[in-house]
Amino acid sequence: MKKILSFIAILLVGLVLVACGPIAKEDGAQTKLDTAHAGMDILISDPSNITSNFVVPSMLAGGIEAVWTSDNPGVVSFGTAVNNEVTATVNRPAKDQGDATVKITATLKLKSEISDKILEKKWEKTLTIKENTVEEIEIETIADILAIKDEAYDGKVYTVTIPNVTIFAKGDVFFGYDGTGIIQLFKNKTTFEVGKVYDVTGALEWYHGIWELEGSTGVEKTSVTPQYPTKETVNSVDAKISALTAAGEHKYSAVSDGNFEPIYATIKGKVFMIEGDSGNYNTYIIDAAKSALVLGEPGKPASGFMFYYGTDDFPYVRSFAGFEVEMDVVIYTYRSNNLAFAVYYVGGPSGITANLNESQKVDVAKNALKLPVEVYKADQTLTLANKSDEVNIAWSFKDAEDANNALINLADGKVTLPTSGQKDVKLVATLTLGEASATKEFTIRVGEVAPSTIAEVLEATDNTYKFKVTGTVLGYNAHRQISIADGTGAITVYASVDAAADLALLVGKQVEFIGTRKAFNGLIQLDNPEFKDLELDGTMPEATDLRTITLWDATSLLPFQSNLVSVSNLKVKEVIANDYGNVELILEDEVTLKTIRFYWDSRQPLVGSSDFIKGLKVGDYVSFTNALLTWRSKNGAIGIHAAAQVTEGESPVLTDAEELALDKQLLELPTNVTESLSLPVTLANGTTVVWTSSLPEVLGNDGTFVQPASDTPVTLTAALTNGEKTDTKVFELVAKGPIPVSVLVRTIDFGTAQVTGYAAGQLVYTNTDGTTITSSKNGAQINNRDNKKDSPELNHHLIMITRDTYLESFIEFNLNEVTGLSKITFEVGLWWNDNESAIKALPNVKLALQVKVGDDWVDVESSGELTNVITLITANEFVEMSFNVNGPGTYRILYSSNSTGTNNTAHAIMIDDIKLFAPEAK
Question: pTM of the entire structure?
Answer without folding.
Answer: 0.70
